[in-house]
Amino acid sequence: MAGVPTSVVAASGLVAGYGVARWTKKRPLGGLALAAAGAVAAKGWQEKAGTKAAAALSGAYVAAFAGSHPLAKKIGAWPSVFAVAGGVALASWAVADRRG
């Protein structure tokens, strides 16, 4: 997968998923954005770092989405989304993108 780094795709998917759900007031649309970006990122992770890394990063992506909800109760919705997106971006860069 050439072009956009997987770290950017994954972080953007988390941010866009929340943004779409919030602004349209239609959670399924946000879920669609989240899932589409996750699928693109997973393909890139697999191509760049292999199947095991892609599975681990996909798990981190889903865990970040799930973890953003309880975190939002403590720090607010947008700060939570940006925090988990940053965490996923960092993990994605460390495992897949920095390799070249």
From TrEMBL:
Keywords: Membrane, Transmembrane, Transmembrane helix
Superkingdom, natural source: Bacteria
Regions crossing the membrane: 77-96
Designated name of the protein: Integral membrane protein
Source organism: Streptomyces albospinus
